[in-house]
Amino acid sequence: MTKSELAERLSQVQKLSRDRAGLLLDTVFDCLSQGLSRDERIEIRGFGSFETRHYRARDGRNPRTGAAVQVKPKRLPFFKVGKELRDRVANGLRTTRELPAMDPASPSASVLRIPGTKI
């Protein structure tokens, strides 16, 4: 699912305009990005948590040439899935709130349709 497809689904579920749903998603993603850039831990209960992991400098090896290289220290975002989401994905459970069906003529409908389900 792409960001635009997510915005479309959000607009359908919450009865928002597509532009408003896109703005809402942009705001949420901006808040997540800003928090991670400040090394804050972001926890969304039932979904998971985001945090920044720090990796120190180390000596590495170029796999093609075998030459030794110095790997610089870095910070990378890390996502840890929550128990509810992990169980839902593992067991194929759906949400208790049914999502509205998408228009079959829309190009994104085929991407979102799961065989054997009535979405």
List keywords for this structure.
two-stranded antiparallel sheet, 4 helices, alpha+beta, elongated, 119 residues, three-stranded antiparallel β-sheet, HU Protein, Chain A, disordered C terminus, 5 strands
Commentary on this structure:
With 119 residues, the chain is an alpha+beta fold. The protein has one domain: IHF-like DNA-binding proteins (HU Protein, Chain A). The chain is 38% helix and 23% strand. It has 4 helices and 5 strands, in the order H-H-E-E-E-E-E-H-H. The protein has helices at residues 3-14, 18-37, 83-91, 109-112, and strands at residues 42-44, 48-55, 58-61, 68-71, 74-81. The strands form 2 sheets. Strands 1-2-5 form a 3-stranded antiparallel sheet. A hairpin with a 6-residue loop joins strand 3 and strand 4. Helix 1 packs across helix 2 (18-37). The longest helix has 20 residues, at 18-37. The protein starts with a helix and ends in a 7-residue tail after the last helix.
Q: N- to C-terminal separation? A: 14 Å
Task: Give the CATH H-level superfamily.
Answer: IHF-like DNA-binding proteins
Which CATH first-tier class would you pick? Few Secondary Structures
Number of helices in the DSSP assignment:
4
Number of domains: 1
Shape: elongated
